[in-house]
């Protein structure tokens, strides 16, 4: 059974930083594209960033230059370093196992940016 467990969310002031982690119980973790998505109330879930098996990354325009996605294949973990956080970054952040094969989602972790 595949499990994706996010951690690292919380309350932070504007301009602050957080690092999210997603620990995966996946065989062949290194072969998969992994992504971070977010959803705020009343909005659709959107891609924040993803990283391929070869380490290529892709970011939403709204987070470019502020967020960094990385992976540690030995630990089967993907990270999202979030700097210079803004109130608009407030959302539930989800980890996703992407291609190849079926998609899996984590349960999400809340990030709140507020003074």
Model description:
The relative contact order is 0.32. Helices cover about 0% and strands about 50% of the residues. The chain has no helices and eleven strands. With about 120 residues, it is mainly beta. Strand 5 and strand 6 form a beta hairpin. The radius of gyration is 13 Å and the shape is globular.
> What is the straight-line distance between the termini?
40 Å
Strand content: over 45%
How would you classify the helix and strand content by structural class? mainly beta
Low-confidence runs:
none
Number of H/I helices: 0
Order of helices and strands: EEEEEEEEEEE
> Main β-sheet, in a few words?
7 strands, mixed
3D shape = globular
Rounded mean pLDDT is 97
Number of strands: 11
Radius of gyration: 13 Å
Give the proportion of residues in helices: under 10%
Outline:
The chain is an all-beta fold and 115 residues long. It is built from no helices and eleven strands. 0% of the residues lie in helices and 48% in strands.
What labels describe this entry?
mainly beta, 4-stranded antiparallel beta sheet, 7-stranded mixed beta sheet, 11 strands, globular, 115 residues
């Amino acid at each position: 059974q595949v499990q994706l467990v996010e951690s690292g969310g919380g309350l932070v002031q504007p301009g602050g930083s957080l690092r999210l982690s997603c620990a995966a119980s996946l065989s062949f973790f290194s072969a998969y594209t992994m992504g971070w998505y977010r959803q705020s109330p009343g909005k659709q879930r959107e891609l924040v960033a993803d990283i391929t098996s070869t380490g290529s990354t892709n970011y939403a325009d709204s987070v470019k230059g502020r967020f960094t996605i990385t992976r540690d294949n030995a630990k089967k973990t993907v990270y999202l370093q979030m700097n210079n956080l803004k109130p608009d970054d407030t959302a539930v952040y989800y980890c996703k196992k992407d291609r190849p094969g079926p998609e899996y989602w984590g349960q999400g972790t809340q990030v709140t940016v507020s003074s």
